[in-house]
Amino acid sequence: MTEQSPALDNLLTESRTFPPSEEFAARANATPEWYAEADQDREAFWARQAERLHWDTRWSQVLDWSQAPFAKWFTGGKLNVAYNCVDRHVEAGHGDQVAIHWVGEPGDTRDITYAQLKDEVCKAANALTSLGVTANDRVAIQLQMIPEAIVAMLACARIGAMHSVVFGGFSPTALRSRVDDAQAKVVITSDGQYRRGKAAPMKANVDEALAGAESVEKVVVVRRTGDDVPWTQGRDLWWHELVDPQPAEHTPQAFDSEHPLYILYTSGTTGKPKGILHTSGGYLTHVAYTHHAVFDHKPGEDVYWCTADIGWVTGHSYIVYGPLANRVTQVVYEGTPNTPHEGRHWEIIQKYKVSIYYTAPTLIRTFMKWGNDIPAKYDLSSLRVLGSVGEPINPEAWMWYREHIGGNRCPVVDTWWQTETGGIMISPLPGVTHAKPGSAQRPLPGISAKVVDDTGTEVGKGGGGYLVLDKPWPGMLRGIWGDDERYKETYWSRFAEQGFYFAGDGAKYDADGDIWLLGRVDDVMNVSGHRISTTEVESALVSHPTVAEAAVVGATDPTTGQGIVAFVILRGGVAEDEAGGAEAIQALRDHVAKEIGPIAKPRQIMVVPELPKTRSGKIMRRLLRDVAENREIGDVTTLADSSVMDLISSGLKSGK
Ligand code: 6R9
After folding, report:
1. Where do the AMP-binding enzyme C-terminal domain residues begin and end (predicted)?
2. Residue 365: is its pLDDT beyond 50?
């Protein structure tokens, strides 16, 4: 991205800034000095962060980068991750503190204290051991958001087995390929899950996935819906029959800092999914530190809620490991945000007095679509920090979030990171940063990131290019499971000479040197030789009063190389025949031209009822490209709701 596209300037016309309030700054966990302290001696800074944990044996070396790009952090150190997340809080006298306020979709609830969580994790660890699971074995977990999911992950960590969590919504084929790749010995699942008010089977899908899977010895089934399930004698066991009778005592063993903790597969764009490997000491240090700094979490005071699914890395790092290491009290919600009504999240925040709320832009835009009057009905005054993750947040959504959810009082932190980075890398710090709507702004203290051009040279202020991470960090992936070559090839070959990690995201510096993420580099379109980011056009579209959500793809065009095709969802209350009519569409095209420049005018705009998204909320542009290019629609197995594509296609055919 050496050439300067006028189009890329659009996001940067955003000039509003929000300085932290004095009261917030006075009590903030993070201080402005951290940046300089970390720059001065990065390893010493990370060593101080590692002090947040309990180590059975202290490390002898902070970072060993001698076998780059395979990092070792806190070498010689030994710790038990589950002990750090549970037992030590009980030993420090916080056994009665609620760890999890669990809310089931049908309305049932459970409060689990740290003392109870410790008992559950110990029982589950004993149960896994009784099945012959030992350190370094792999356990696949396909569960919805129920407490057993968290207990199962911590039980694996406690005995040094690696978990591989697979989305509850993933197809049998997707589960099978992950089970085979990791050669999982045990699979933990449930009979079924509640989704949108209905019980959907899980166990039956797991059975389908596991037919002939040779590595799997046992399947442990949590009873949730109570529906009948197929049963394989000798292989299948009920969780309550296996786990409940186990002793609640279990001595945690200290494992090496580099002992593997988990594998998590990223939804690959093509071919085989990548099994991202994370290890113990560095990872836990990274997620505990970032959860403390970015969310300003105060143990014993705050009520935290991250709305992610544990099948996604955000659930691993910011529901399980970071928050529990920091002695959080958190909400875990099983269901969808509009079951039984569109105010469900706000009702939960009001009830539990949630003070820190972390969600995804796609959901924020959905809330916008449902209307301002819904959150307005609830008391959201307990909130004090709002977070966003998963994709670039457009300034309109950021402002809406700040105003309608945060009451113009809560700092909004836009956190950039990836499955591969393990934890948050670029984000404002509440109480420190002057926030800018739509920008993740600055690498955290201890983290180094740069925007570089094709040759790996850092671009200047106002310049755009590729985001790279130029220094190793504790939470970084240690490789791709079973495929060292692919690890080197995917992340380290693009800028091999400089030794940079290639994140695959486009980014830009503004005039102050703040970073703006522009979406995946494969989502950058090339129209008549001009580079235009899909995010940028989407951002322009949603800044129009009739548009709630937009997805933009570059479709092959005989004249311009690529043509811009936009799919838009209208805001609630906007009459579809009016807003979807020829004149309204023309007005939208003109609006984009006005916001970005005539070059960014979409060739085609289609009004649709839904957009195809993965469970982590990412729009699957590949499928929209198929529609835009009149092709047969490709593989939809990783969609959260695979019927969405039918809805879009039939809506378009009926001329809407
Ligand atoms: C945590 C997570 C990683 C990709 C990443 C980027 C996009 C995530 C973002 C963001 C802009 C943010 N992404 N957070 N883009 N601003 N705040 O999402 O992990 O599922 O591995 O996705 O998501 O494109 O490269 P993962």
Report:
1. 536-618
2. yes
Q: Is it true that the peptide bond before 6 is cis, omega within 30 degrees of 0? A: no
Q: Which residues line ligand 1 (CB under 6 A)?
A: 266, 313-314, 389-392, 414-419, 440, 503-505, 517, 520, 616
| Percentage of the chain modeled with pLDDT above 70 | 94
* Domain spanning 22-59+81-384+400-409, CATH class: alpha beta
pLDDT in tens, 137-171: 999 999 999 999 999 999 999 999 999 999 887 77
Domain boundaries, the chain: 22-59+81-384+400-409, 528-652
In this structure, what DSSP letter does residue 523 have? G
Residue 531 confidence class, pLDDT cut points 50, 70, 90: low
Amino acid identity at 234: G
Pairing of strands 218-222, 78-79: unpaired
pLDDT score of 549 more than 70: yes
What are the tokens at 424?
Answer: 């948050």
The least confident of 374-378, 526-530, 614-618 is 526-530
| pLDDT tens-digit readout, 375-396 | 999 999 999 999 999 888 889 9
- Atom 16 of ligand 1 has which residue's CA nearest to it? 392
Q: What is the pTM of this model?
A: 0.85
The H helix count followed by the E strand count for the chain is: 23, 30
Do 72 and 64 meet the contact criterion of CB atoms below 8 Å apart? Answer: yes
- Reduced to 3 states (helix: H, G, I; strand: E, B; else coil), residue 189 is strand
Ligand-binding site membership of 195 (annotated): yes
Per CATH, the number for 528-652 is 3.30.300.30
Helix, strand, coil in percent for the chain, rounding step 5: 35, 25, 45
Distance from CA of residue 246 to its chain's centroid? 34
Cβ proximity of 53 and 83 under 8 Å:
no
Question: For residue 416, how far is its CA from the centre of ligand 1 (angstroms)?
Answer: 6
At residue 357, φ and ψ (nearest 5 deg) are -130, 130
Q: What is the DSSP string of 329-341?
A: -EEEE-S-TTSS-
